[in-house]
Amino acid sequence: MVKKIRLRRDATRQMTAAGGSARTRRSNPVAEKRLTKVIAGLAIGLFSAYASSSLSATEVASRGLADLSIQELMNIEVTSASKKAQKLSEVPAAIFVITGEDIRRSGARNVPEALRMAPGVDVAAIGGGRYAVTIRGGNGRFANKLLVLVDGRSVYTPLFSGVVWETIGPVLENIDRIEVIRGPGAVVWGANAVNGVINIISKHSTDTQGVLVSGGTGTEDHGFATLQYGDHIFSNGSYRIYGKTESHGASDDASGQPGNDRNRSSHAGFRADDQLDDSALSMQGEVYGVATNDRLNVPAVIAPYSATTLDGQQHNSGSNLLVRWDKTLSPDQDISLQSYFDFFTLEIPGYSTNQQKTLDFEFEHRIRAGTRNDITWGLNYRSAGYRDNSGEFITFDPTSRSLRISGAFAQDEFRLTPESLRLTLGAKLEHDTYTGAHFMPNARLLWNVNASNQLWTAVSQAVRTPSVGEHDGRVGVNPVTPPSSTTPPNVCSLAQFDHCAIAPVTQPSNLGAERLTAYEVGYRSEFSDAFSLDITGFLHHYTELEISTPDFAGVSVASSDGNPYLLVPIVLGNGFSARETGVEAAADWRVNDWWRFQSSYSRTWLKYALPDATSHAFDASPRTLLSLRSSMDISGTHWDLWLRHVGERVATSSSPFIPEYTTLDSALSWNLPFNFDVSLVGKDLLKDRHPEFVSDGISSQPLTVDRSAYVRITWTY
Question: What pLDDT is stored for residue 610 in this prediction?
Fold first, then answer.
């Protein structure tokens, strides 16, 4: 009886939460390919080798590695797929859960690093705490088809259509789980939930009582510290307050010289929860500041067209406040109200300073109608105001704008048979002031073959709406190329001046929404209490994708210090389509009572029609991703090894070629007397350094990821 009460309380909480060396070492391509084949063979072998009660992720984190069976892990409850609590095994979507225990054992220092555990998620370090993160292709510094949430609060910024990852710095010990949905989630989350949804869900404040002190240092992480205190308040309430600070050293460039990407950040916040008779109230807030050095590439508009560099410091700051209220109306229905306010400032030297203020309201109603229908519907409204101060390279017209988004959704999970077949139908209608109304439907079918095997399939649609920068931004000068075959014949000779260069200038345009129709099929199996397998296949058909084309009819002449050059307008529009197919797999194998082995693999194929060009941002993502994780508990010592392989990134119009790489992390931890925990982590151990991504959109110094290590000490009381 006690366990049932605790599980019911945890389900309520989840509903509340929804919402090195300086010498360059040459790589050996032959050896790396051989290693890749060995790794792939090992993963495939593990996928097939073992083929002969609900739990919250908080409970998972509180229990030992050997105490949880595969069945218990598959029964972890998730809320992001349909905004209601569901067992992981009963969700007709490609979903992967990263628990707080997974994060602790992996040695990840931030959320992007932890996301590498999920299949199909491409994470690439740029430098200075900046990351490029996407799901199922189309990566970039501001990947525009991935919606990211923190406890249901969107951190996807319409300023540049993407996520500023360096500003997301939760206390990792406070993360209950990260729910990663691969594929569209537009029916419940709206526009921009195109290729996937990531929801970072924090622990209930009851589970973080007492004192937490954590800190450490390392070769790249020069210093980091967290101080937190939690206690009870009122009769059924609790709270926690925290502060954290981090300082990171400079990365190296390809030659081994230090770059200019040192960064430091500070976060402070709170969470308070109160459990009433038939309702729950939660409130949380945070303030933060991030300062990152950067070396920007400044283009030259006259011969010899070589770019110079500008050293500056990017400043990001913000604050947010979220309030959520859940009320049970009867055993068959409940409602929830959520509202948040978010203030965000992004200052990029030489480019612009942007301010964003967002006020969001959401209402949801869940009702069980009879024995077959489980209906969820809701309304949402968001008002966002933007103010842009133009810089040397980007101007905005107008300099301020208001964006309003309103929508309604409804979804019904219908039991075709009492146990085995469930059909989910839903749709969202959303309207925004840029592109008007959008209808996003969804149909999903789940077949419980038996207690251990499930098959599901889905057809869904989603849209990506243009950003403020795409509508109002004017790029004054971009990296310049000398006249080439893409320049109209004789355009330079007709101008009859000594210097000729192409300097793109973005012109006002009437951009529409990008669209996706996705087809998915998945299979999950619990072969035994020791082995599980999850496989997903998908076909994504994109239409109305954004494309930029030169307007040679609008060519004009400008000058710099008396030297003339050409200005060629660039027009943004919706002009091509693409088709992406792929397969994703994840396996979990309990070898014995002290050793767990997890692996994931993804492979994609891309085909698109793009006029007058040979590359696009979709190509900035690798075709192959592989992750192998080993977790061992031996005589009080926890040892985790994490081997990853990332395929090559082909050169595109905005990013260079990045070779494939394989890397290894090692994390050792010990639980010591008096509630001390010590961790020793080594990262990227196979090479001195390797590149992962070069910043696109905002051109900055290419940097590498260096071999590193850090030590962390945590004390709780």
Answer: 59
> What's the DSSP call for residue 452?
T
Rounded mean pLDDT, 504-525: 85
CB atoms within 10 A of CB 497: 13
pLDDT band with cut points at 50, 70 and 90 for residue 468: confident
Instruction: Output phi, psi for 671, to 5 deg.
Output: -95, 110
pLDDT in tens, 43-66: 333 333 333 334 544 444 444 444
The helix/strand/coil state of 347 is strand
Q: Assign 561 to helix, strand or coil.
A: coil
CA angle 36, 39, 43 (to 5 degrees): 135
Q: Among candidates 172, 252, 265, which has minimal Cα distance to 223?
A: 265
How far is residue 318's CA from residue 152's CA, in Å, rounded to a whole number?
Answer: 17
Burial class (CB in 10 A: 0-12, 13-18, 19+), 277: exposed
Residue type, 541: H
CATH 3.40.50.300 corresponds to the domain 2-561+573-716: no
- Burial of 3 per CB tally in 10 Å (0-12, 13-18, 19+): exposed
Question: For residues 18 and 494, is the Cβ–Cβ distance under 8 A?
Answer: no
Residue 552 has phi, psi (to 5 degrees) of: -70, -20
Query: 282: closest CA among 233, 199, 234, 338?
Result: 338
CA 646/CA 134 separation, integer angstroms = 14
Q: Is the peptide bond before 691 cis (omega within 30 degrees of 0)?
A: no
Contact (Cβ atoms closer than 8 angstroms) between residue 631 and residue 101: no
How far is the C-alpha of 526 from the C-alpha of 69, rounded, in Å? 10
**How far apart are alpha carbons 526 and 424 in whole angstroms?**
23
Alpha-carbon gap, residue 477 to 139, rounded angstroms? 23
The residues near 48 (Cβ < 8 Å, ≥ 6 apart) are: none
Domain limits, the chain = 2-561+573-716
Q: What is the pLDDT of residues 562-573, one digit of tens each?
A: 666 667 777 788
pTM attached to this predicted model: 0.88
Instruction: Please state the φ and ψ torsions of residue 106, each to the nearest 5 degrees.
Output: -70, -25
Q: What is the phi/psi pair of residue 263, to 5°?
A: -150, 155
> In this structure, what token pair is assigned to residue 415?
């039991």
Four-point Cα dihedral 180, 186, 190, 192, nearest 10: 70
